Amino acid sequence: MAADPILLDRVRTALHRESVPFEEKKMFGGTAFMVRGKMCVAVGQERLMCRIDPAVHDQALQHEGCRTVVMRGRNYIGYVHVDTQVLSQERQMNYWIGLALDYNRVAPESKRKKS
Length: 115
Known about the structure:
By secondary structure, the chain is of the alpha+beta class. Helix content is 30%, strand content 35%.
């Protein structure tokens, strides 16, 4: 599945507005935005994936359209999907981008697999 092009542009705009350098990479069946060399948010078809502080994960799930990322039957605490229909207003988009950027500042770098 390709990333939602409208949501991609909205994420780019939000990250530019925050004045953070980022890189785009194809992953998770969409496009991930890397900030400080770490995955921050990813855009897929009809959803935004955010890497957030695991300590606020359960609180984030209280928001409409938010659910835990599940891959290969495993729940990933600290990663949430947010449905695009609940991101229609800029305020909502800014909330999720802000939450992901807040954690990105303190998140540990991923352990890279040796080739």
